[in-house]
């Protein structure tokens, strides 16, 4: 049997860790067994579905390299197929038209709740063979009334539902739009889906779908319901929370490898192994190792994983990503040190590429608007005079290297009886416009003599112009 899986998101929001993990596990199952993976967009909720969410889904899938073999298919384009099945089901009395008004349905529901009865439709239109021409109606599935619906889930084991609890649920709304529980079954049958991977919040839908499949005399797929993923507060993930959105991590300079590894380990493990490349994921993934317990999204874990990838990924890949973010800031990396030098010296300080790009711009630009308040707090007349002295001494430095730069700064500090920390602080501010940054000696070396002297000169002018040396 050829394994065929699918990922079928609804484009009513951005992909988050929950549905992206479903996509990954479904993709891995198909690849592990050398099967097929299908992308299907379930967009029958016309009011809430959006083109921007569809585009985002496709971009996120491509970013994570979860390439599909067929699709994307759109349910909105498959209504003719659904109608064909509906006509057959009505003809075979598997489904029927229901003309009951909202008022009547509400009255039944209130009565059932008042009398401690589980709310469900009373089958009035089925029992009385109701037909009303030119009247609005829904189409209901004729659920079995006796026996049990039993299925074996690969994660939760045997699940048994008493059919007396099942409702004759709506499969087509009164506006003619088919519902999720109907469309998903027809699509899975037509696409020959063998394994259905989804969140355990769909377990309640499974008996409904199984009974439709059985009524159409089709083969049942294997069900794999994944435990929920919760946020740090123990609540279900929201599509509208930016911290859960896959696209947020892409925009913030995280690596796709980081997100794939994080998703993989949300409820699945292979011994103590933490880091997996894509081939290891495909070869080692096993449904039996999926944990039943809910997983928690731990942002610190994502940061730690990404920091690890910052160290182990090839430099050419880091350069490519860093270049992308610097170009977005309109920074010309040709006007400064080679990116490889910046990466080798400073990458260990950052959690992601965006953070690095935000702290590396000063390697490539001498045009600062100095922070008046910052300088006011850290400069005085003595420092002002020392900066003039330092400028003249460095102007005559011929051999520009870390050792000579370090020795000169220390010598000036000692000669002028100035705390080295204070000198480093003012130098940081003048060459980076920031009080906190990396080893100042390395920065001075990398920006080279011409840029260093220009920044010190501009800083001295700014201090003089604003009379900060009188503070």
TrEMBL record:
<dbReference type="InterPro" id="IPR033910">
    <property type="entry name" value="GluRS_core"/>
</dbReference>
<feature type="short sequence motif" description="'KMSKS' region">
    <location>
        <begin position="236"/>
        <end position="240"/>
    </location>
</feature>
<dbReference type="InterPro" id="IPR045462">
    <property type="entry name" value="aa-tRNA-synth_I_cd-bd"/>
</dbReference>
<feature type="binding site">
    <location>
        <position position="239"/>
    </location>
    <ligand>
        <name>ATP</name>
    </ligand>
</feature>
<dbReference type="InterPro" id="IPR020751">
    <property type="entry name" value="aa-tRNA-synth_I_codon-bd_sub2"/>
</dbReference>
<dbReference type="GO" id="GO:0006424">
    <property type="term" value="P:glutamyl-tRNA aminoacylation"/>
</dbReference>
<dbReference type="InterPro" id="IPR000924">
    <property type="entry name" value="Glu/Gln-tRNA-synth"/>
</dbReference>
<dbReference type="GO" id="GO:0000049">
    <property type="term" value="F:tRNA binding"/>
</dbReference>
<keyword id="KW-0648">Protein biosynthesis</keyword>
<comment type="function">
    <text>Catalyzes the attachment of glutamate to tRNA(Glu) in a two-step reaction: glutamate is first activated by ATP to form Glu-AMP and then transferred to the acceptor end of tRNA(Glu).</text>
</comment>
<feature type="domain" description="Glutamyl/glutaminyl-tRNA synthetase class Ib catalytic">
    <location>
        <begin position="2"/>
        <end position="302"/>
    </location>
</feature>
<dbReference type="GO" id="GO:0004818">
    <property type="term" value="F:glutamate-tRNA ligase activity"/>
</dbReference>
<dbReference type="InterPro" id="IPR004527">
    <property type="entry name" value="Glu-tRNA-ligase_bac/mito"/>
</dbReference>
<dbReference type="Pfam" id="PF00749">
    <property type="entry name" value="tRNA-synt_1c"/>
</dbReference>
<comment type="subunit">
    <text>Monomer.</text>
</comment>
<keyword id="KW-0030">Aminoacyl-tRNA synthetase</keyword>
<keyword id="KW-0067">ATP-binding</keyword>
<keyword id="KW-0547">Nucleotide-binding</keyword>
<dbReference type="InterPro" id="IPR020058">
    <property type="entry name" value="Glu/Gln-tRNA-synth_Ib_cat-dom"/>
</dbReference>
<dbReference type="Pfam" id="PF19269">
    <property type="entry name" value="Anticodon_2"/>
</dbReference>
<dbReference type="GO" id="GO:0008270">
    <property type="term" value="F:zinc ion binding"/>
</dbReference>
<keyword id="KW-0963">Cytoplasm</keyword>
<feature type="domain" description="Aminoacyl-tRNA synthetase class I anticodon-binding">
    <location>
        <begin position="321"/>
        <end position="460"/>
    </location>
</feature>
<dbReference type="InterPro" id="IPR008925">
    <property type="entry name" value="aa_tRNA-synth_I_cd-bd_sf"/>
</dbReference>
<keyword id="KW-0436">Ligase</keyword>
<dbReference type="InterPro" id="IPR014729">
    <property type="entry name" value="Rossmann-like_a/b/a_fold"/>
</dbReference>
<comment type="similarity">
    <text>Belongs to the class-I aminoacyl-tRNA synthetase family. Glutamate--tRNA ligase type 1 subfamily.</text>
</comment>
<dbReference type="GO" id="GO:0005829">
    <property type="term" value="C:cytosol"/>
</dbReference>
<protein>
    <recommendedName>
        <fullName>Glutamate--tRNA ligase</fullName>
        <ecNumber>6.1.1.17</ecNumber>
    </recommendedName>
</protein>
<dbReference type="GO" id="GO:0005524">
    <property type="term" value="F:ATP binding"/>
</dbReference>
<dbReference type="InterPro" id="IPR049940">
    <property type="entry name" value="GluQ/Sye"/>
</dbReference>
């Amino acid at each position: 049997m050829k394994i065929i899986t699918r990922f079928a998101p609804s484009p009513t929001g951005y992909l988050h860790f929950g549905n992206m993990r479903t996509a990954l596990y479904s993709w891995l199952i198909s690849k592990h067994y050398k099967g097929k993976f299908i992308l299907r967009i379930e967009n029958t909720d016309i009011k809430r579905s959006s083109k921007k969410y569809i585009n985002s889904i496709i971009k996120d899938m491509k970013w994570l390299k979860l390439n599909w073999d067929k699709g994307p298919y759109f349910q909105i384009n498959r209504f003719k197929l659904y109608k064909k099945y509906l006509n057959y089901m009505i003809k075979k009395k598997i489904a029927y038209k229901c003309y009951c008004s909202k008022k009547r349905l509400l009255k039944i529901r209130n009565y059932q709740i008042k009398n401690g009865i589980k709310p469900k439709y009373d089958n009035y239109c089925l029992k009385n063979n109701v037909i009303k021409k030119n009247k609005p109606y829904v189409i209901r599935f004729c659920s079995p009334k006796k026996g049990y619906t039993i299925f074996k889930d690969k994660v939760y084991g045997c699940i048994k539902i008493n059919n007396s609890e099942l409702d004759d649920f709506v499969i087509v709304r009164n506006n003619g739009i088919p519902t999720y529980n109907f469309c998903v079954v027809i699509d899975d049958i037509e696409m020959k889906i063998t394994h259905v991977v989804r969140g355990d919040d769909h377990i309640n839908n499974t008996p409904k779908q199984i009974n439709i499949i059985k009524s159409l005399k089709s083969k049942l797929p294997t069900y794999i319901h994944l435990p929920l993923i919760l946020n740090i507060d123990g609540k279900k993930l929201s599509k509208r929370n930016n911290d859960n959105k896959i696209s947020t991590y892409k925009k913030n300079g995280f690596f796709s490898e980081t997100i794939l590894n994080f998703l993989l380990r949300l409820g699945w493990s292979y011994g103590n192994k933490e880091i997996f490349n894509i081939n290891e994921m495909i070869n080692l993934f096993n449904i039996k190792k999926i944990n039943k317990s809910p997983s928690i999204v731990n942002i610190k874990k994502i940061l730690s994983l990404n920091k690890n990838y910052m160290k182990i990924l090839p430099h050419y890949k880091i350069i490519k990503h860093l270049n992308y973010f610097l170009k977005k800031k309109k920074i010309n990396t040709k006007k400064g040190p080679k990116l490889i030098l910046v990466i080798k010296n400073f990458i260990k300080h950052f959690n992601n590429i965006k953070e690095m790009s935000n702290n590396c711009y000063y390697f490539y630009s001498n045009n600062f608007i100095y922070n008046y308040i910052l300088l006011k707090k850290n400069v005085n007349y003595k420092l002002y005079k020392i900066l003039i002295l330092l400028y003249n001494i460095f102007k005559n430095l011929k051999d520009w290297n870390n050792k000579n730069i370090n020795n000169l700064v220390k010598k000036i500090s000692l000669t002028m009886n100035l705390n080295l920390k204070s000198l480093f602080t003012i130098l940081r501010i003048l060459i980076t416009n920031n009080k906190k940054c990396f080893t100042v000696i390395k920065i001075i070396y990398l920006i080279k003599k011409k840029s260093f002297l220009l920044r010190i000169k501009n800083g001295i002018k700014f201090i003089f112009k604003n009379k900060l040396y009188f503070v």
